[in-house]
Amino acid sequence: MFSGSIVALITPFTLDGEVDYASLKKLVDYHVEAGTDGIVAVGTTGESATLTVEEHVKVVAKTVEFANGRIPVIAGTGANATHEAVTFSRLLSNVGIAGCLSVTPYYNKPTQEGLYQHYKAISEETDIPQILYNVPGRTGVDLLPETVARLSALDNIVALKDATGDLDRVQRHRELCGEDFILLSGDDSTGLDFVKLGGQGVISVTNNIAAADMAKMMQLALDGKFEEANIINERLMPLHKNLFVESSPIPVKWAACKMGLIENGIIRLPLTELSEQAKPIVAKAMTEACIY
């Protein structure tokens, strides 16, 4: 159901800080034309933490509208309060999304049992397929493989986005969760290796500005053509690394603006636009990757 090259889509803003829906439509069309396999709307890269509830729901709904059935849309629905994550799942249940991506509760630092009960409560409130999202570097909590295995037994929890970068977990998750459970990388630098080890794809930041390359690389990898996939991956590696030279999505929004995909690199506080010191680093990575 979920595989290949999935973009963790940025949310563009106008100069006065409102959501730029014209640019959002342009981004959706760009990904359809490039062959991207899916869109995550309002995930971490989409600045979910700084959108209002109303904006969050509207951006997802508009992304589905702009996609018009041409590409599946997954909604970011995670929150650090279980009731809030449930609310997002309910509010978005009828807009046409293919699934929900739910990050582990941040700041609270729940136990493994707390994480299990959090996701169980969400799964009981919706029939929409749920993708677990583990990114300890941002949330301060690690969803362990044994807990993922418990959750994979619930009917509508179908996948995991693993952004730990720990490749040893791929086999561990496969052993514990079975062959039908979908494993997606959330780390561009190790995404191809993740697929080589048995993952089904990557939810990617790099994809925002190198969509066609990411789509081709993932298709080659899923076809077992790893040597050809490696050639593309090595070329994109400067992006995989330097799009995180400052907190994401700061660098990728600047890069997308430079490519003309969005009107500006506006980002909401407490994040700020790309620093003057970092701009040459990102620009060099774009040149090395042959995308600009």
TrEMBL record:
Gene3D superfamilies associated with the record: Aldolase class I
The reaction(s) this protein catalyses: L-aspartate 4-semialdehyde + pyruvate = (2S,4S)-4-hydroxy-2,3,4,5-tetrahydrodipicolinate + H2O + H(+)
Compartments where found: Cytoplasm
Pfam families for the chain: DHDPS
Keyword tRNA processing in annotation: no
Record-level GO BP terms: diaminopimelate biosynthetic process; lysine biosynthetic process via diaminopimelate
SMART domains with a match to the protein in the record: DHDPS
GO MF, one annotated term: 4-hydroxy-tetrahydrodipicolinate synthase activity
Statement: the UniProt record of this protein carries the keyword Aminoacyl-tRNA synthetase: no
Chief location bin: cytoplasm
Active site: 133, 161
Pathway membership, UniProt: Amino-acid biosynthesis; L-lysine biosynthesis via DAP pathway; (S)-tetrahydrodipicolinate from L-aspartate: step 3/4
Keywords of the record: Amino-acid biosynthesis, Cytoplasm, Diaminopimelate biosynthesis, Lyase, Lysine biosynthesis, Schiff base
NCBIfam families: dapA
UniProt family annotation: Belongs to the DapA family.
Oligomeric form and interacting partners: Homotetramer; dimer of dimers.
Function comment: Catalyzes the condensation of (S)-aspartate-beta-semialdehyde [(S)-ASA] and pyruvate to 4-hydroxy-tetrahydrodipicolinate (HTPA).
Protein's name according to its UniProt entry: 4-hydroxy-tetrahydrodipicolinate synthase
Organism: Vibrio gelatinilyticus
